[in-house]
Amino acid sequence: HGNMAFAGKYEFEGDENYDDFVTKIGLSSDKIQMGRNCKIVTEVVQNGNDFTWTQHFPGGRITTNTFTIGKEADMETMGGKKFKATVKMEDGKLVADFPNYRHTAEICGGKLVEVSSQMSRLVYLKKKKKTK
């Protein structure tokens, strides 16, 4: 299947479970306030597999991530943390593993839908065999 066309300017429309998510990933309360229902405009420039993903926050703050599908890139989180990630294309969705969550983006009905889900880690202890 072909590349989804992500290019465009998208205005924030709404969020679900925002507070729960940002608390879990450890955003400070002032950043949580700043991000709540804030009219972020996301601008996506796509040239084949190369992307420039810019978020314009009210008050003039801008976060820009530039990446190529399948290649490691320097990225920055909403909270300003720098990290390295490889963005992949899976079923028409852009998928990136941020430091403590997985982020996907897709175009649905002309809208940009971004989903951030916290990655859980399960650790199991090997049971010892009972000795008689």
Automatic annotation (TrEMBL):
<keyword id="KW-0963">Cytoplasm</keyword>
<dbReference type="InterPro" id="IPR000463">
    <property type="entry name" value="Fatty_acid-bd"/>
</dbReference>
<protein>
    <submittedName>
        <fullName>FABP6 protein</fullName>
    </submittedName>
</protein>
<dbReference type="Pfam" id="PF14651">
    <property type="entry name" value="Lipocalin_7"/>
</dbReference>
<comment type="similarity">
    <text>Belongs to the calycin superfamily. Fatty-acid binding protein (FABP) family.</text>
</comment>
<keyword id="KW-0813">Transport</keyword>
<dbReference type="InterPro" id="IPR012674">
    <property type="entry name" value="Calycin"/>
</dbReference>
<dbReference type="GO" id="GO:0005737">
    <property type="term" value="C:cytoplasm"/>
</dbReference>
<feature type="domain" description="Cytosolic fatty-acid binding proteins">
    <location>
        <begin position="8"/>
        <end position="25"/>
    </location>
</feature>
<dbReference type="GO" id="GO:0008289">
    <property type="term" value="F:lipid binding"/>
</dbReference>
<keyword id="KW-0446">Lipid-binding</keyword>
<dbReference type="InterPro" id="IPR031259">
    <property type="entry name" value="ILBP"/>
</dbReference>
